[in-house]
Protein: PX domain containing serine/threonine kinase like
Organism: Prolemur simus
Amino acid sequence: MAFMEKPPAGKVLLDDTVPLTAAIEASQSLQSHTIVRRYSDFDLLNNSLQIAGLSLPLPPKKLIGNMDREFIAERQKGLQNYLNVITTNHILSNCELVKKFLDPNNYSANYTEIALQQVSMFFRSEPKWEVVEPLKDIGWRIRKKYFLMKIKNQPKERLVLSWADLGPDKYLSDKDFQCLIKLLPSCLHPYIYRVTFATANESSALLIRTFNEKGTLKDLIYKAKPKDPFLKKYCNPKKIQGLELQQIKTYGRQILEVLKFLHDKGFPYGHLHASNVMLDGDTCRLLDLENSLLGLPSFYRSYCSQFRKINTLESVDVHCFGHLLYEMTYGRPPDSVPVDSFPPAPSMAVVAVLESTLSCEACKNGMPTVSRLLQMPLFSDVLLTTSEKPQFKIPTKLKEALRIAKECIEKRLIEEQKQIHQHRRLTRAQSHHGSEEERKKRKILARKKSKRSAIENSEEHSAKYSNSNNSGSGAMTCLPPLQDICVTSTSSTSTSTTSSSLASREHGGARPALTPGCERCEPRGLAQLHPEFPKRNFKES
């Protein structure tokens, strides 16, 4: 697709930060999103991830006996554990290799090739620029690519071009989007990295900045080379060491100042992390202001979507600042969030800020404002010396468009948080009811209920039998209907015999079984059974 060509109708804009989980199951029980992978596919993925420098628990190969049932079951457990390790690692789970392995339908395209095509189309209209080389995988985003550039009449000066596709949070109209992208080079602030050139179409944006040989704040923390692939630089650092206290205070204050500036301007950011902070001497400068305009999700989106109190872009920025401060302090990201306890820090003032942004209480009750963080002891006494005056003029019409887009981004975040909350409750309920302890409890309750029911039935039967006996001891006994009694009148003797027979049946003969409530079996006299019985005379025919 050419650079200025419109995107195809109905194109799905994926959120690449949505975490993927994988479960190996028997083929008969798979119900949704099915992929078929052989062991050789796992082996190929594992070899590709070796650049990260991590020791991943892939089960070993086996040539003989690899079709045995026991071996297959054991390997299935091992491969499941392997996938669990990958998908719970924040950097690995977001990399293109893992996404293509777990979701090939949505990640089958070659995004480097697409970016090259669009950049080439751009240079047809801007011949003064020239591509030196692609900077492969220096960032974590799948649909954002980087190229080392130069100006033809200034061959020694190096620049970096970034191209990015649209994301799922792009709510600006095409016209407003392109106008705001072209405004970015006019943004001047001592703590924002300057944009040299910016342009956009209906499907992507392209920006050029000066290439910084020192790299980002994350490169400083991890002692990494800026041009190396993201996985190699940050997955398994050789030395884990935080920054000095004064650096933490200065860099933290500078970042908070620029966040406050953007919030006051009504410009949504939401993309703070150590790789988006460029170092220029002792000064931190914020990168990638275009990300929120493009609708790209945050690096820490999977964390923010877990906590329903982090529901505005301002609170997202504050929470992301907590991650950044943790990384500056300890030289590594937190193992999990929320953080229950913090390791020893250079100052208790650092821990106080971390607790206000990453602790269980903070995630449950909400984030402080940027202004509140600036007043905390860690940053309140930092003096900033800069002569550059901030300048970023946004027309009123575009400010309104930004406000509406910001509300839409926050609404999608809230909806996602609700879905995750409901899914978590359902999972807990299923796990609780499916546990071995609960099964035993249900079996015991079922047995007790069965016994109780049997006892109640037995008592009811005894009571009915007792009532029938009591009714049988009265003057009247239930007889069968008269039509069931065969009476043969042949002589007076016979008549007498018949009467005697009826009398004996009434007072002491064999009794039929009683059925309570039955019309035929309720206790009543012979007169009730047949009104004419007392008057009838049995005569010889």
